[in-house]
Amino acid sequence: MSRMSFGFSSLLLVVACGGGGNSVTPPPTNSTVAAHAGDGQTALDGTPVAIAPAVRVTDAAGAPVAGSGVTFTAASGGGHITQGTTTTDPNGVAAVGAWTLGRLGGNTTSAINTLVATVAGNDITGNPVTFSANAWGNSWASKQSLGTPRAALALGTVNGVVYAVGGAAVGGVVQIPSEAYNPATNSWSNKAGLGTARANLGVGVVGNDLYAVGGTDHNFTPTGTVEVYNPTTDSWAGRTDMPTPRAYLGVEVLNGVLYAVGGWAGDTALGTVEAYNPATDSWTTRASLPTPRMGLAVAALDGVLYAVGGAGHNGQETAIVEAYNPATNSWSTRASLPAGRMEFALAAHNGLLYAIGGWKNSGAMSAGVDAYDPESNTWSPRSSMPTLRCKVGITVMNGLLYVAGGYDYTGQWHGELEVYQP
Fold first, then answer.
1. What order of strands is seen across the sheet that includes strand 250-254?
2. 3-state SS assignment for residue 384
3. Among residues 103, 225, 389, 412, which one has the fewest Cβ atoms lying within 10 Å of its Cβ?
4. Which helix (H) or strand (E) holds 12?
5. pLDDT for the residue 7
6. Lowest model confidence (mean pLDDT) among 1-15, 79-93, 358-372
7. What is the signed CA dihedral for 410, 266, 275, 279, rounded to 10 degrees?
8. Measuring CA to CA, which residue among 208, 152, 235, 219 is closest to residue 227?
9. How many angstroms separate the CA atoms of 216 and 265, rounded?
10. How do strand 369-373 and strand 41-44 relate by DSSP bridges?
11. Of 131-135, 300-304, 400-404, minimum mean pLDDT range
């Protein structure tokens, strides 16, 4: 039964795709085949190219040849096709149904896929035709920059929109409008600014609400201020202050609870961990971070909260990684970063953590990207961020890592938005 079904489906495929009728005949002698559409494209790893590759067959006089059999084969790169065999239509054109790109090796920046179209017959000029496409993976792309260059900001995503909140710009910590990025139009628009201007804060998203926590005010004083943003009304409202005022902290949401981890109290690095329940607008204290630090970054992955890097009381950067299990309210040590860094970006995606950018106490900057695999407890390098900077904001949306803003300690405030495809 399965063989009969397969044969019937194949017959339907030829009839549906063969514009030249049911018969397949070789093209006349001295015919030519050439790429008609779809060469040189780029698409995300694991997604089809926008234009289906197509070839056109013509005879010696340049007239289209219908009914010629064409076989499409995914030749290299790890991609795959659908409707791999077809016939040319009255215009002499045959197209593959879909070409989904792949990325062999996973970690390489080279992601060229090739597709070969072969016309059945002899003495055909240009036969076979090779198409190439780039599977976008482990690579960066530049998007529209922020309207206001700023550093020490925070990013969050609500309903497919990226929000840039707070930060410091030219002139210091001043009132800066929040900005919203629409990936469909590659554009930013101004939104309501925080009620309390601040930088070096953290944000977390619970449901459709974005919470801004802590940071430094215009006097560079750590604060415990908490505000929540409603995208529908474009408005901020106050919530119960965080018990421990602090900045340069890590903020992340895990299982609907917002965690504030570590940070700077104005004179020392902290190991304090406090958890906020949006349903009750209340805070509770959790097990302290074993290694007090500021300028760290945190991210949640598979039910575990990771605290990565940062700097200790003396301002010296660290590579320490510690993991928090909310079920046991306990921390454990994991493999350290390849090198210490602080004020960098950290995000979780598809089973991995990505540490991006940052700087060292020596003043050395980094655009490096390192990925952590919790299964093997190892870090490995990835393609570097195009723009050297620290104090950036980061968020994840639709499988992409969005990194915006920053500072590079040469006096340059950054507004760049760069997007990383793992």
1. 250-254, 257-264, 269-277, 282-286
2. coil
3. 412
4. helix 2-17
5. 30
6. 1-15
7. -90
8. 235
9. 10
10. unpaired
11. 131-135
